UniProtKB/TrEMBL annotation:
<dbReference type="Pfam" id="PF13561">
    <property type="entry name" value="adh_short_C2"/>
</dbReference>
<dbReference type="InterPro" id="IPR020904">
    <property type="entry name" value="Sc_DH/Rdtase_CS"/>
</dbReference>
<dbReference type="InterPro" id="IPR011286">
    <property type="entry name" value="2-deoxy-D-gluc_3_DH"/>
</dbReference>
<dbReference type="InterPro" id="IPR002347">
    <property type="entry name" value="SDR_fam"/>
</dbReference>
<keyword id="KW-0560">Oxidoreductase</keyword>
<comment type="similarity">
    <text>Belongs to the short-chain dehydrogenases/reductases (SDR) family.</text>
</comment>
<dbReference type="GO" id="GO:0051287">
    <property type="term" value="F:NAD binding"/>
</dbReference>
<protein>
    <submittedName>
        <fullName>2-deoxy-D-gluconate 3-dehydrogenase</fullName>
    </submittedName>
</protein>
<dbReference type="GO" id="GO:0008678">
    <property type="term" value="F:2-deoxy-D-gluconate 3-dehydrogenase activity"/>
</dbReference>
<dbReference type="InterPro" id="IPR036291">
    <property type="entry name" value="NAD(P)-bd_dom_sf"/>
</dbReference>
Length: 248
């Protein structure tokens, strides 16, 4: 087996929402495999850039706020990107009978609309360049299940799985793989409210065969694999990284 099968040396990646949580872990994992990583966030990704450069990797900070879902329209043109990780996402919890239009639109805009149009801008550039590349979208367990009190999030994450499969079909002839990772319950800001509620925390833990919440680094390695030559014939997959939750 060639020693560089998992290497990302010479590849340039954009990771959205790279200031914290899963996005930070993915940025660090790609950089550890040799990629140059542009860490995009609506807030500075100083901490992530510092972690990567302190470890000898290459990283830069970029402002990208999906309050405008088309914010990435001009990011890729002539910039030499090979890899795109659509990680930025939000969750708004409320009983469905009370769910507001404002919460619905906010979640769909960031998780679904911005994700698609960022893929579109990246795909246009790579197809014109003709060099191929890889997209990894961050989906969720809720791409497969209904969740509780998160109707817009569930709808958006089902859409992420669908967009991933649709683009994989269209762009395979251009050498662009499009895959998604469906994390289970991971220790980040997104799940803080659940972990702070002892009843919910225990109910969740009882359903995870691995017996623990996931760590952001559990997702980072999977993303690095999907960006590597080792995964060059993997496309249209939505990979569960959930400690066995969906298998139970
Ligand atoms: P997180 O710590 O809340 O990270 C979410 C990231 O998205 C942050 O960087 C956040 O920036 C960014 N973001 C939110 N709104 C944005 C906007 N308008 N423009 C640009 N960036 C924006 O939670 P996380 O768990 O790491 O979430 C990362 C991804 O994993 C999300 O897509 C989430 O749905 C998915 N996921 C998480 C879990 C889990 O258990 N944690 C499970 C399944 C899927 P700020 O820090 O500025 O808010």
């Amino acid at each position: 087996m060639p020693h560089d099968l998992f290497s990302l040396t010479g590849r340039k990646a954009l990771v959205t929402g790279a200031n914290t949580g899963i996005g930070q872990a993915i940025a660090c994992a790609l950089a550890a495999q040799g990629a140059e990583v542009i860490c995009a966030g609506r807030r500075p990704c100083t901490d992530t850039v510092q972690k990567i450069t302190a470890a000898g990797g290459q990283a830069e900070d970029m402002r990208l706020d999906f309050a405008d879902p088309m914010a990435a329209r001009d990011v890729f043109s002539g910039a030499g990107f090979d890899l795109l990780i659509n990680n930025a996402g939000i969750i708004r919890r409320e009983d469905s009978v009370n769910y507001s239009e404002a919460d619905w639109d906010a979640v769909i805009d960031v998780n679904q609309k911005a994700l698609f149009f960022t893929c579109q801008a990246f795909g246009r550039e790579l197809i014109a360049r003709g060099t191929g590349g890889a997209i990894v979208n961050i989906a969720s367990l809720l791409s497969f299940q209904g969740g509780i009190r998160v109707p817009a999030y569930t709808a958006s994450k089902h859409a992420v799985a669908g967009i991933t499969k649709s683009l994989a079909n269209e762009w395979a002839p251009h050498g662009i793989t499009v895959n998604a990772i469906a994390p289970g319950y991971i220790v980040t800001n997104n799940t803080e409210a659940l972990r702070n509620d002892p009843a919910r925390n225990n109910a969740i833990l009882a359903r995870i065969p691995a017996g623990r919440w996931g760590e952001p680094s559990d997702i980072g390695g999977t993303a690095a694999y999907l960006c590597s030559k080792a995964a060059r014939y993997v496309t249209g997959a939505v990979i569960n990284v959930d400690g066995g939750w969906l298998a139970r």
